[in-house]
């Protein structure tokens, strides 16, 4: 298998893992709290869980990144998070849009999955260029 194909398959698998972590965390959050703002709170919790899972997988297995120090890793995670802001808008737009249009938990999650898929493709290119770039030798 070509290395770029292997990379794409690994990235897709990791995106699925992070998506499952995100949606799973949302579902747990909504089950734990169903009061005012429960949907928004669950999406924020899921986004945070998905972000950390995806960062850990991407830095190790996709970009083979090794931080020089805790401070370096913290700066890298902050940059990774910043690059994720635009893609989070895509994800949240789809999830909240589906929630508004269909008003069911299943359709909200479907919107979230679609938004995450679009966002992860965009995020790969942002991360490759701005977060985990390597200097030419």
TrEMBL record:
Question: What are the UniProt keywords, alphabetically?
Answer: Membrane, Signal, Transmembrane, Transmembrane helix
Biological process GO annotation list? polysaccharide biosynthetic process
Protein location: Membrane
Q: What is its main location?
A: membrane
Show the stretches that span the lipid bilayer: 35-57, 77-94, 109-126
The way this protein sits in the membrane is described as: Multi-pass membrane protein
Source organism's superkingdom? Bacteria
Keyword Membrane tagged: yes
Which residue ranges does the record assign to the GtrA/DPMS transmembrane domain?
10-132
Protein name per its UniProtKB record:
Putative flippase GtrA
């Amino acid at each position: 298998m070509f290395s770029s194909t292997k990379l794409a398959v690994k990235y897709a698998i990791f995106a699925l893992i992070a998506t499952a972590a995100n949606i799973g965390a949302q579902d747990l959050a909504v089950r734990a709290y169903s009061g005012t703002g429960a949907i928004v709170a669950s999406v924020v919790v899921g986004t945070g869980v998905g972000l950390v899972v995806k960062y850990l997988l991407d830095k190790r297995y996709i970009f083979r990144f090794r931080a020089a120090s805790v401070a370096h890793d913290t700066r890298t995670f902050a940059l990774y998070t910043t690059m994720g802001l635009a893609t989070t808008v895509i994800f949240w737009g789809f999830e909240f849009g589906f929630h508004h249009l269909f008003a069911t938990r299943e359709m909200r999650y479907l919107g979230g999955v679609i938004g995450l898929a679009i966002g992860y493709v965009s995020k790969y290119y942002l991360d490759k260029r701005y977060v985990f770039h390597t200097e030419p030798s």
